[in-house]
Amino acid sequence: MLNEQPPDQKRRVHPLEREPAPPSQPGGESPRKQTTLHIPSVRPLVTYTMIGIMVAVFLLRATSPGTDEAILQWGANQRELVLVDGQIYRLLSSMYLHASVYSSRGTFALENSLHLFLNAYMIFVVGSSIERLFGHVRYALVYLLGGLAASVASIVLGSGGYSVGASGAVFAILGAQFVYLYQHRKLLGAAGRRQLMGLVQLVGINLIFGFLTNAAGASIRIDNWAHIGGAIGGLALSFAIAPLYIVRSHPTQPGHLMAEDINPLRPRLWTVSVYAVVLMLILIAARQFYIP
User: pTM of the prediction?
Assistant: First the structure.
């Protein structure tokens, strides 16, 4: 049911819908003054923690080929091990593992660290900015639950091989960034719209590259289904729990503006529960219909 405005009342315009005031003409009113906008922000501690865990696991695996193989076999995501053997923990542990530190001959392969470097770089660049705006809890929920959605998509729709990496979580926070830019497109103006289009292009290029590596039958293939699952998970969760800022006058600093979040997390926690239940139902259905 929709709440309609009484006919004798004018609709209240949302702050983000207001058009900016035109610049003053020569000889007219005084030019607009620059003002300061205060936006709530936190240090990206969760981002640093996630990167730290991935690097620590990488260094532990580098101690010997046997340790490397044992950790990879223990934590990589794989369809039969999850659906048949019930090793659900692999959905999470695989997010902190990356390409093997050693080559197939057991020699150290430094170039394999590129997989870790690229994911860590994206998490640092995108995750830092998103966590500052979302806060620790909302960002952690998007990162972890979006990464789990990626792992679920990988085992349900993927090739069935071993899958590792944090790129599913990366796509989840890219989805969160898309939601933030889209919801605040009027406030951010042309710069925000350019960033939004650049983000869409970045995701599209990555998905096309992943498709090409699979079509060409490369020895190391990109798990596109994990990327798609992470992006969808991040989008869905962020549309529900992402902060939605409106601009108000600062209560204590005249001439300054402040961004107020009108979508607090606590009333939206039920959507997080629904999201988790949906993931569990997908896993249960996949296990019931899985044919080895």
Answer: 0.85
